[in-house]
Amino acid sequence: MATVYLVRHGQASFGEENYDQLSPRGWEQGKALGRWMTSIIEPAAIFGGDMQRHRETVEAIATGYGSQLPSMQVARGFNEFDHVAIVNSYRPEWRDRQVMAKDLAAFPKPAAAFQKTFVEAIRRWASGEHDADYDETWVDFKARVLAAFNDMIEYAGGGDVLVSTSGGPIAVICQHLLDLDDERALGLNAVIANTSVSRVLYSGDRRSLSVFNNYSHLEAEDPALVTFR
């Protein structure tokens, strides 16, 4: 059986003007994954969304890997959902970033306060009760992720594939393979570490999740590299 290695991108730049770029720690996470991969995988193909953090994660992996890797093929179906639009639909006043910063600064732990709001916003989106508020519904998101996943496997033709993507698509793929409900899928998304690896075995129409959210490559080099946001 062949393997699909689903990699969540390295840590992005939360709080910076361009969130989509990797943070310095995100680059180090990607390099650590590349070093670990040298004895694990020789991918026949590499796919990723068209987000900057997806591309930069592949660049960091290639640096750590130390030898030639296939060029990343872009499949927009592996892009993350638009978390900014989803949060703004839940808290419209946060479209003004100064208002958001002021609101969060009132909490002892602003990052924790944002995370709580983020979780509530995602649940509202996934509930299906407010679909008119979103350009992409939860159902639409799941459909385009699974379509990209199936197209990628068909293209791979039985070879091992590395996919640089985000927590949301990985959670949706795992939900599909394990027949989980939406609440459990959202729970998976909350615990996927940066540059963690989830493995899907496939042969023909058979697909099985064999490993979820492995980040031992980070723990082995430096536990401080383990991040979830």
| Helix vs. strand class | alpha/beta
Main-sheet strand order equals 3-2-4-1-5-6
What is the 3D form?
Answer: globular
Nearest-angstrom radius of gyration? 18 Å
CATH topology of the largest domain: Rossmann fold
Task: Assess the beta-strand content as a share of residues.
Answer: 15-25%
Number of domains: 2
CATH architecture classification of the largest domain? 3-Layer(aba) Sandwich
Mean pLDDT over the full residue set: 94
Quaternary state, please?
single chain
- First-to-last CA distance: 33 Å
Total strands: the figure is 6
Low-confidence stretches: none
Largest sheet: 6 strands, mixed
Q: How do the SSEs run, as a string of H and E? A: EHEHEHHHHEHHEEH
By CATH reckoning, the class of the largest domain would read: Alpha Beta
Fourth-tier CATH superfamily name of the largest domain: Phosphoglycerate mutase-like
Number of helices: 9
Helix content: 40-55%
What is the secondary structure topology, with strand pairs?
Layout: E1 2-8, H1 24-37, E2 45-48, H2 52-65, E3 72-74, H3 83-90, H4 97-105, H5 110-126, H6 138-156, E4 161-165, H7 167-178, H8 182-189, E5 197-203, E6 206-214, H9 216-221
Parallel strand pairs: 1-4, 2-3, 2-4
Antiparallel strand pairs: 1-5, 5-6
Helix pairs in contact: 1-2, 3-5, 6-7, 7-8
